[in-house]
Design a protein that fits this description.
Elements: E1 3-4, E2 7-9, E3 12-14, E4 22-25, E5 32-36, H1 43-59, H2 63-78, H3 81-92, H4 96-118, E6 126-133, E7 140-148, E8 153-156, H5 164-176, E9 180-183, H6 189-201, E10 210-212, E11 229-233, H7 236-243, H8 246-249, E12 254-258, E13 263-267, H9 273-288, E14 298-304, H10 308-319, H11 340-354, E15 358-362, H12 363-366, E16 381-384, H13 393-396, E17 403-409, H14 412-420, E18 425-431, H15 435-445, E19 449-455, E20 474-475, E21 486-487, E22 497-505, H16 506-509
Parallel strand pairs: 1-5, 8-9, 8-11, 9-10, 11-12, 13-14, 13-18, 14-17, 16-17, 18-19
Antiparallel strand pairs: 2-3, 4-5, 6-7, 7-22, 15-16, 20-21
Helix pairs in contact: 2-4, 2-5, 3-4, 3-6, 4-5, 9-10
Bound molecules: NADP nicotinamide-adenine-dinucleotide phosphate (NAP).
Length: 515
């Protein structure tokens, strides 16, 4: 059965436009799973309804009351978890372990923000920092406050996380009292749509708090107001295009971008064999998990020059054992890319890197893919370059698939310099024993990375993984990674609030307690 992904705006379901709708495909079998299209949706009406009805109702609640909504959403989605994993298998081509990163990651993030929200004041606004006197006798002072934005939050999401990508943004927005309109990436919109439909049918949220448009509606950005917000996840090229839109460029619509990133894993100069094993295990996991289609995946591996051959051999040995194919086939460890067009993009990226790197492991010659020949399955490729200083492409080219490049470094300063050549990344991980070496590396990497993941033997069993964006920690990176900021606990709420300095008599400011 092929599903029509109806659009939900102004508290009403609207059909797709028959003439221009797009098919969502099974990336392994090529069969049509669903249709999406939103050409005829009135986006101005959608946003107006969301601001007025959804925003008004959400803002009439306090933070703990909205946290209770998140809790109910979490419970509703939890009860349908197996159904979501099945959609993910069919539409994203992922094995259960990889689908779980998306689906369970979404559930965990929702429950985390529900817990954070329950601990917030039973109030409609937040006090930000201490009061500062503006005169000698303290009769005139300044107090910063955070109030929920009265705008709408448009969430434009990437194809690789249809579940987590929605809820990691929606949870802080709804907790802040801001209505959301989600536009999932078309290729995998089915899972997002199914979750939104389940939440709407459960009647948890006020009218207008949650809307969805699948496809490319006309006026998606044109119809925004200057006090609205856009939270974008996707490629740097699309982010650049959207940033140039007059609503953002001229009218000041708040814009957060999470984009490409050439993330690094560094084996410390003092790294023991155990540290080397940890790095090798993590690289293999990042290469194969979701077929390398994670914005946080390890793309560059830096090791002391004398360890280059050992690490190359250890990685080759592990990658040779990876089974690739249809995620429905028992024993398959790595499913497919999200679409055949992504397979073509990855093939092009591999050709690009081949010009400046050696192929240390070419899965296309070593692994038999257990899927139809024209499926979107791509086995892993490990490149190596002995001279990373002379090959700028390895620091600039994001191949969004199971592809990474190994490179040697002379000393730690050289390794840190190589990592920085990504010109702003989401995450770097460092593996070693010496606490001061790890801390020193972190202080350097923090300037060009949104997150630094330090792995020492005492964290072997507890570390959360290089590529996993935990809601407690910042997700986002400077420069090339988009310059955005998400998650990081309560920090995520700032994007959906307006901060203002209130100046007045001490007695008046005393009235501005959270209310
Ligand atoms: P994409 O092609 O840039 O698309 C991202 C989203 O933007 C999709 O919903 C897409 O809709 C929409 N879009 C594209 N052009 C648009 C336009 N002119 N107007 C309005 N919307 C537009 O990226 P993708 O291929 O889905 O995702 C892969 C990329 O995302 C990778 O580069 C990856 O690094 C990055 N990513 C980053 C993060 C992060 O957190 N930093 C997370 C995941 C992925 P359609 O689907 O309808 O084209």
């Amino acid at each position: 059965m092929t599903i029509e992904l109806l659009n939900h705006t102004e508290s009403t379901w609207h059909p797709t436009s028959a003439g221009t709708r797009q098919a969502l495909l099974d990336p392994v079998l090529g069969t049509t799973l669903a249709w999406a299209g939103a050409d005829q949706i009135d986006m101005a009406g959608c946003y107006r309804w969301a601001r007025t009805h959804g925003g008004g109702a959400l803002r009439s609640m306090t933070y703990p009351q909205r946290a209770d909504l998140l809790d109910q959403i979490h419970q509703t989605l939890q009860s349908r978890r197996d159904h979501y994993l099945d959609i993910s298998l069919r539409n994203s081509g992922t094995v259960e372990r990889d689908s779980s990163i998306d689906v369970d990651g979404a559930l965990y993030t929702l429950s985390y923000y529900a817990k954070l929200g329950r601990a917030l004041p039973d109030a409609h606004r937040l006090i930000d920092g201490d009061r500062a006197s503006l005169c000698r006798d303290g009769s005139f002072a300044s107090q910063h406050i955070l109030v929920p934005s009265h705008g709408v939050a448009l969430l434009i999401n990437a194809f690789n996380f249809p579940a987590w990508g929605l809820w990691e943004k929606a949870a802080p927005a709804l907790l802040s009292g801001v209505p959301i309109v989600v536009k999932p990436a078309t290729a995998t919109a089915w899972l997002t749509w199914e979750m939104v439909r389940d939440v709407l049918e459960a009647g948890i949220l006020p009218d207008g708090a949650l809307s969805i448009v699948c496809g490319r509606p006309a006026g998606l950005l044109d119809a925004l107001d200057p006090l609205d917000m856009v939270s974008f996840t996707g490629s740097a090229d699309t982010a650049a295009e959207l940033r140039g839109h007059p609503r953002i460029l001229r009218d000041g619509v708040r814009f957060n971008a999470e984009t490409d990133s050439i993330n690094s894993a560094i084996l410390g100069p003092d790294g023991s064999l155990q540290a080397e094993e940890q790095l090798v295990r993590e690289v293999e996991r990042e290469l194969t998990s979701k077929s390398g289609q994670k914005c946080t995946a390890i793309r560059r591996i830096m090791v002391p020059a004398k360890r280059y051959d050992d690490v190359a051999q250890a990685l080759e040995a592990r990658l040779a054992k990876v089974t690739v194919g249809d995620p429905r086939t028992p024993g398959i460890r790595m499913g497919s890319l999200v679409s055949r067009s992504q397979r073509a993009a990855v093939d092009t990226g591999i050709d690009t890197l081949s010009g400046s790197c050696d192929r240390l492991f070419d899965g296309r010659n070593r692994i038999t893919v257990q899927a139809p020949e024209d499926s979107a399955c791509v086995p892993p490729t490990l490149f190596g370059t002995q001279d990373p200083d002379r090959h700028p492409l390895v620091h600039q080219t994001e191949v969004f698939g199971p592809v990474a490049t190994l490179m040697p470094y002379r000393d730690m300063a050289h390794a840190l310099d190589l990592a920085r050549r990504g010109m702003g990344s989401l995450v770097a991980s460092v593996y070693g024993e010496d606490p001061s070496t790890l801390a020193h590396a972190a202080a350097h990497l923090a300037e060009s990375h949104g997150r630094v993941h330090l792995i020492s033997p005492d964290t072997a069993k507890t570390q959360t993984g290089h590529g996993n964006a935990m809601p407690q920690s910042n997700h986002g990176g400077p420069g090339r990674a988009g310059g955005g900021q998400e998650l990081g606990g309560l920090r995520a709420l700032n994007f959906y609030h307006r901060q203002a300095a209130i100046q007045g008599a001490a007695g008046v400011l005393g009235q501005i307690t959270p209310a």
